[in-house]
Amino acid sequence: MTNHLETSEMVLNMGPQHPSTHGVLRLILKLDGERVKSIECVIGYLHRGVEKIGENRTYAQFAPYVDRMDYVAAVSNGLGYCLAVEKLIGIEAPPRAQFVRVIFAELNRIASHLLWLGTSALDLGAMTALFYTMREREDVLKIFENYCGARLTTHAFRIGGLQYELHDTFEAELLAFCASFPARLDEYERLLTQNPIWVDRLKGIGILTAADCKAYAVSGPVLRAAGLPWDLRKAQPYSSYDQFDFDIPTGQNADSYDRYLVRIEEMRQSLRIIRQALDRIPSGPILAKVPKVLKPAPGEIYSSIEAPKGELGYYIVSDGSLQPWRLRVRPPSFLNLAALEKMAVGALVADVVAIIGTLDFVLGEVDR
After folding, report:
1. How many CA atoms lie within 13 A of 304 on its CB side?
2. What are the residues facing 38 on neighbouring strands?
C-alpha cells in the first residue's frame, strides 16, 4: 500500500542571485520540509585573483587593490596591508599617523557595523532600521570623502604613514558625529532590542559555541558573542591601540541575538576610542622615511589586525625583489562562512537568512 504522507528530501538553491545572501553566494540546501539537513556553500563568483595580482605588482602598487576585498571596510584592509609591509621592511609609522589611523579604522568599524545592522534588519522585515543606519553611515562616508575623495574603497593610508594631512574641517566633522551618534545608537536599540519579532527571529538561532568557534577558526564579533573576549586590539596591540581605554563586549548564549548585541556595543566602544584619539592626536610628521623603491630583504612575516568582521591577516614572503614572492590574505569572512552549516543544520529555511545576516560576511573578501 502506498503511503501518500511520505516526504522526500528536497534540494533547494538559494542564490547566487538572492538579496539575503549578502553577495554572490550560492547555497545548496537539503531540506526535510522546512528543516535544513545540510548546506553546501558554493563560492568563487567574485574571484579576481587578488593574491596573484599582489605577486605581480610592487609593494606600493598593490596597496589600492586590498581596498576592493571587503569593500565595506576598505580602510581596515589598507591598514592591515600597510602594517604588514612596514613589519617586513622594519619601519613604524610616526605617532601622529598611528593616532589618525586608529580614528579612521574605528570610523570604518562603525560604518561596517551600520551597513550590517541595516541590511540584516531588512532581511527580517524591519525596513526602518536600514534608513536610520544609512543616515549615520553617510556622515562617516562624508568624512572619508573630504579626506581623500573616496567614500567606499577609501584608500586612506600609505606604507609608512598617511596619504594626506587632515583637512581643515576634520575635527569639526568628527566632533559633530561623536555628539550625535550615541543618541542614534539608542534609537536603533529602541527599534530592535526588545522588539518581539526581532527577538524571536534571533534568540536561540544559529548557535556557535566557543569550542566550535575555535574549531572553525572563527574570529571577530561571532567569536566574542560566544563569550571569548579575544580582540587583537587588546591581545596584540598595533598602531597605538595600547594607549586607549576601551572594553571588549562579549555574549553569553553564542546565538544570533548575542551577535547583534555585541556589534551594537562595539560601535559604542569605537566611539569611545575615537574621542580619546581625537583629544590626544600628537603633532609631527605623518609619514616615516620610506625608500622610494621598496626591496625588502629576503624573509617572511605574518601581520594581522582586528577588522570589523574579525582577524584580517597578511602573510608576505620576500625574495629580495621589488615584488612579493608570495602574498596570502587571511580573510575573516571566508573562515566565518565555513561555520555556516554548523550553525544552520536543524534550523528552518527562514532562520538561514537570519544566520547569514548575523555572520556579516562580504563575498568580495571570501572570493578575493
Report:
1. 20
2. 30
Q: Is residue 156 part of a domain?
A: yes
Residue 80 has pLDDT above 90, yes or no: yes
- Quote the cell numbers at residue 150: 573616496
> Tell me: the pLDDT tens digits for 304-334?
999 999 999 999 999 999 999 999 999 999 9
**Domain CATH for 121:** 1.10.645.10
Cis peptide bond N-terminal to 332, omega within 30: no
Mapping DSSP onto H, E and C, the string for the chain reads: CCCCCCCCCEEEEECCCCHHHCCCCEEEEEEECCEEEEEEEECCCCCCCHHHHHCCCCHHHHHHHHHHCCCCCHHHHHHHHHHHHHHHHCCCCCHHHHHHHHHHHHHHHHHHHHHHHHHHHHHCCCHHHHHHHHHHHHHHHHHHHHHHCCCCCCCCEECCEECCCCCCCHHHHHHHHHHHHHHHHHHHHHHHCCCHHHHHHHCCCCCCCHHHHHHHCCCCHHHHCCCCCCCHHHHCCCCCHHHCCCCCCCCCCCCHHHHHHHHHHHHHHHHHHHHHHHHCCCCCCCECCCCCCCCCCCEEEEEEEEECCEEEEEEEEECCCCCCCEEEEECHHHHHHCCHHHHHCCCEHHHHHHHHHHHCCCHHHHHC
Residue 258 placed within a domain:
yes
* Other CB atoms within 10 Å distance of the CB of residue 221: 31
Per-residue pLDDT at 7 exceeds 70:
no
Alpha carbons 29 and 41: distance in angstroms, whole number:
9
Q: How many structural domains compose the chain?
A: 1
Residue 35 forms part of a structural domain: no
Domain with 356 in it: 48-367
CA dihedral 170, 171, 177, 178 (to 10 degrees): 150
pLDDT of 349 over the 60 cut = yes
Residue 102 phi/psi, 5-degree rounding, is -60, -45
Give yes or no for a contact between 228 and 274, defined as CB atoms under 8 angstroms apart.
Answer: no
Q: Determine, yes or no, domain membership for 14.
A: no
pTM for the predicted model, two decimal places: 0.92
**For range 220-242, the mean pLDDT:** 92
